[in-house]
Design a protein that fits this description.
It holds the Pfam family DUF2218. 20% of the residues are buried. Strands 2-3-4-5-1-6 form a 6-stranded antiparallel β-sheet, with helices on one face. It is an alpha+beta fold and 97 residues long. It is globular, with a radius of gyration of 12 Å. The protein has 2 helices and 6 strands. The chain has one domain (2-85): TATA-Binding Protein (2-Layer Sandwich), CATH 3.30.310.50.
């Protein structure tokens, strides 16, 4: 599996994580609590989330490197819809080694 991660500085990280998890829970077997979440989009594609008072960390893990950038965009687009009152700035993804 390959993985990439992004850290978004926001005091609303827990709220956004919960919203994302609830949003995707109608299609996927989502697991989450107040500090972390897991969205298994498929057996070989998932998004892990960790939230704290300073922000939200997103980690995408998948087999297909060609689809990684697309899934990063999907996750960030959904996040920005929930955070429309807040400018999250440009989100930078970094490879996880």
């Amino acid at each position: 599996m390959i993985a990439s991660t992004a850290r978004i500085a926001t005091p609303n990280g827990r709220r956004y994580m919960t919203q994302l998890c609830k949003h995707w829970a109608h299609k996927f077997e989502v697991a989450y609590d107040e500090n972390q979440g897991l969205v298994p989009f498929s057996p070989d594609r998932r998004c892990r989330m960790a939230a704290d008072a300073e922000g939200l960390t997103l980690t995408i893990e998948m087999e297909d490197a060609e689809q990684l950038e697309r899934l990063q965009g999907v996750v960030i687009d959904h996040l920005k819809r929930f955070a429309f009152r807040e400018d999250l700035g440009e989100v930078a993804w970094a490879a996880v080694s």
